[in-house]
Amino acid sequence: MLRNLLNHIKPHFEQGKPLAKLYPLYEAADTLLYTPGTVTVKDAHIRDNLDLKRVMISVYIAVLPCIFMALYNTGLQANTILDASGGIPGGWRYELIRFLGAAHNPASLWDNCLLGALFFLPVTLVTYVVGIFWEVVFASIRGHEVNEGFFITGILFPLILPPGTPLWQVGVAISFGVVFGKEIFGGTGKNFLNPALTARAFLFFAYPAQISGDSVWTAIDGYSGATILANAASGASEYGASWQQAFLGTIPGCMGETSTLACLIGAIILIITGIGSWRIMLSVCLGMLTIALMFNLAGSDTNPMFSMTPAWHLVSGGFAFGTVYMATDPVSAAMTQTGKWFYGFLIGSMTVLIRVINPAFPEGMMLAILFANCFAPLIDYLVLRKNKQRRIARSAC
């Protein structure tokens, strides 16, 4: 019945018909529900079962642990504050919690996930509505199909935001990320910057008061929730949490990037399915390990961040999330096998350098990946040129 309905309305979207400009929107819905209308049929093509839909589904499965932690930990941090203070703030989210008869019990999985969902889901909804709007606009102008690649950007972007990010800022940021980070370069496959990180960088520099500081990491206004990196940069002897808590992700931070364990599960899924590059993931960790150990050997007399060990760098901030889901973006990352090693090492080393040297910006992972995105084409070019020179020299012999 659904197939017949889509076939019945299709003529209204064809060339010369009143809704011809909206054909990309029809095609996006048809492709989402069924196999794309244009598929490879000639024997000259090498085909396997890994099409674009299966790639997206695999990434969604890999990111599910981080989505669960976004729901659970966002609610956990808020309910912990509410349980200690005894006060219930205003706002539609807490009114809905009271209407549903739920409690603010940090020991309850349901209470934590329910409250976390009321922060995470609106951000995700705004991201998809605004992002798909721009995808359809550019597809209609250029006369091509809507690319499904945004469905991955649309779920990764909310995961790297603080829980209290205003929804209007979410819409403005994802608009910037899609339009200026991807579409002006030709759309999916032609962008050299990661759109989700481009949107996040726009938020950081355009609205620093709402995206940085200690009070943005909890879903309760006016309550401080300093991150591990903020505590380390301030010279605190304790980072505010144990290493085990940081590894599990029960600490203040962006909604979906606090849990290294969740990112590790996602990394295993991406590597097994062949979608995420293990070379990039490993080289990012090697770059971080190398530079962090160098700073450890230098001592911490002048800068307390010098003493932060590689183990703490691994579980702090967005290092694990960026390594697994952002650095491995197949469009903006290096494409040659050798280039992936240099690309990943650059990200890992730059992350530690930014964290340690720049006290005003203790995170570093976002800027390191965007910096490496800019150099990925050059890295691939140099690798290919070196291989060409090697083959020419070998043939001359």
Set down the secondary structure blueprint.
Blueprint: H1 2-9, H2 23-33, H3 52-85, H4 92-100, H5 109-142, H6 150-159, H7 167-181, H8 195-206, H9 208-211, H10 228-233, H11 243-248, H12 260-273, H13 278-298, H14 310-315, H15 319-326, H16 337-357, H17 365-396
Helix pairs in contact: 3-5, 3-6, 3-12, 5-6, 5-7, 6-8, 7-8, 8-17, 12-15, 13-16, 16-17
Output mean pLDDT.
87
The ordered string of helix (H) and strand (E) elements is HHHHHHHHHHHHHHHHH
Sum up the overall morphology in one term: globular
Strand segment tally: 0
Estimated share of beta-strand residues? under 5%
Largest sheet: none
Number of domains: 2
Number of helices: 17
**Relative helix content:** 55-70%
Terminal residue distance = 67 Å
Derived structural class:
mainly alpha
Outline the low-pLDDT stretches: none
Question: Radius of gyration, rounded?
Answer: 23 Å
Concise summary:
This protein is globular.
Model description:
The protein is mostly helical and 397 residues long. The protein has two domains: 2-33; 53-389, no CATH class. It has 17 helices and no strands. It has helices at 2-9, 23-33, 52-85, 92-100, 109-142, 150-159, 167-181, 195-206, 208-211, 228-233, 243-248, 260-273, 278-298, 310-315, 319-326, 337-357, 365-396. Helix 5 (109-142) runs parallel beside helix 7 (167-181) and helix 6 (150-159) packs parallel to helix 8. It is globular. The termini are far apart. 43% of the residues are buried. The model has no long low-confidence stretch (mean pLDDT 87).
